[in-house]
Design brief:
Elements: H1 4-16, H2 28-48, E1 59-69, E2 81-85, E3 101-106, E4 114-115, H3 121-125, E5 135-139, E6 142-146, E7 153-158, H4 188-202, H5 204-225
Parallel strand pairs: 4-5
Antiparallel strand pairs: 1-2, 1-7, 2-6, 3-7, 5-6
Length: about 230
């Protein structure tokens, strides 16, 4: 299992050659940011090439829902309600200008909701055959479900830009859906690519700075011993 802490440790160990450096040491948060950036870039490239979605990229959330008036305008109540998530949904990696939410379904996974949009939902409602079908859409990063009976929680799966944002959500057992020590949403080969890219590009300047500092330290020591 690859975790974010594993990736951070591996990258730092390669950069420093197994040596500890007090000066110019790269912050773990900086490396985590690079990992997030490079992962998103690699997944976008694969999605652009029409590669099928890899299961390892997907994260799963338990989303709490609540009733909201359909108008959502200050001081205006229509008496008509729609289900709205109580938390914003982490942004997903875009695929051909679309989100990469892969599924919205009931907790027991017996009922799946079809995707729509805030624009299409008006036409869906008047469809003779499917107008009563429950559908979902995203608006201002909130999840909405139309034509549904009141349900407290749903399951949402997707490929999120920043996997760490999933930490705001908890599993059915109450544990965070993400920590630096839980499985990071990458395949083994992608984890290797991320490490290689960061070491060769992002951390190059820092590594040079460390070598220069070591050289200067060694030179200073020689001069002091004269």
């Amino acid at each position: 299992m690859t975790t974010l802490n594993h990736l951070i440790y591996d990258i730092k160990n390669i950069i420093y050659g197994g040596r500890a450096h007090d000066d110019a040491e790269i912050n773990d948060r900086q490396i985590a940011y690079w990992v997030t950036q490079v992962r998103a870039m690699l997944i976008r490239q694969e999605l652009f090439a029409k590669t099928s979605i890899h299961d390892s990229w997907v994260q799963h959330l338990i989303v709490t829902m609540d009733q909201a008036d359909t108008s959502e305008a200050c001081g205006i109540n229509t008496g008509c309600y729609i289900l709205k998530s109580t938390q914003v949904i982490p942004r997903t990696i875009r695929r051909n200008s679309r989100n990469t939410v892969t599924a919205v379904q009931s907790i027991d996974e017996t009922t799946s909701f079809s995707e729509t949009s805030i624009f299409r939902k008006k036409f869906n409602e008047h469809n003779k055959y499917t107008g009563s079908k429950s559908r979902w859409y995203l608006k201002n990063d909130y999840l909405y479900i139309t034509n549904s009976k009141v349900i407290e929680k749903v399951s949402l799966s997707g490929i999120f830009e920043d996997p760490s944002e999933v930490a705001r959500f908890t599993s059915c057992s109450g544990t965070p859906c993400f920590t630096n020590d839980t499985s990071y949403p990458v395949s083994a080969d992608m984890a290797s690519k991320i490490t290689d890219i960061i070491v060769k590009t992002k951390a190059t300047i820092t590594a040079i700075g460390i070598d220069d500092d070591d050289t200067n330290d060694a030179k200073d020591k020689k001069e002091h011993t004269k």
